[in-house]
Design a protein that fits this description.
The protein is mainly alpha-helical. It is built from 13 helices and five strands.
Amino acid sequence: METQEKRKRIYSAMQPSGLITLGNYLGALNNWVKLQDDYDCLFCVANMHAITVRQDPAKLRKQSRDLLMQFLAVGLDPQKNIIYYQSHVPQHAELSWILNCYTYMGELNRMTQFKDKAAKHADNINAGLYTYPVLMAADILLYQADLVPVGEDQRQHLEITRDIAERFNNLYGETFVVPDAYIGKVGARIMALQEPDRKMSKSDENKNNTITILDEPAQIMNKIKRAMTDSENEVRFAPEKPGISNLLSIYSAVTGKTIAEAEKEFAGVGYGTFKTAVGEAVVARLEPIRTKVSDLEKNKDYLDAIIKEGAQKAERIASRTLEKAQKKVGFPPKIR
């Protein structure tokens, strides 16, 4: 009798730093939804990472819940995946301390994201910001993840995770799965509407640069109509036309049409007509998500049950790994 091959485990997380943008959705979450049928997936609301920057407590609680609702609304199934708050699983912090003792200062000094964030938050360069990659390593290693979807800005963090895991395993024997980067289909790279030379970002202070997945239809149409274009009035994808190229990328991603098909569709059409079509396509794609979030907001008991169950499932896996690591370093077992 053939045994079913064990599915690989994928771990991914997102900070609750604001509403999910169209860029987050098309570049990352849309791909997460496709992974859930082929892998065992954990999707984490990384609210412990969020406090490396000063937060308004009430706002952080709300944004954490909002992000989890958006995970569900885009199609992540709590029956197929483990969806949870990082702060509800104390093993993250416990393993992070152990791994801190197996991470070298030189490794942390090389982390470019620390340098970038320290420059942005010069009045709050805290130890958590510095050891952030170790907590990220604990996040991944706790669940014995085989694969981690990473963008270019997170690749360095995955490398240090691998280094820490290999160092620990070499000292104590096989304890952690050494994770690989998940290289799947590249999601659409969506740029800022007003500044198409940089990525659309949740933290952008210029709200006309971003579309969130919960924007009202009128907001979406207005933002698309104000998006930067050029003086040519020709809809084509080209390096010298970053604004139009970005709108074509958006249209292609939300409709499933190729860039070439979109260029053909809008040949000889003015920018006004083109922008209206892009806006309507985005509205049509996001409307079901807005409706789903609205339904979830009215169903507190259902959402609370998902949050509770997600934490319990995550903790069952995390506790096994933590106890194994504690034993390896010489901590005495708990008396039960």
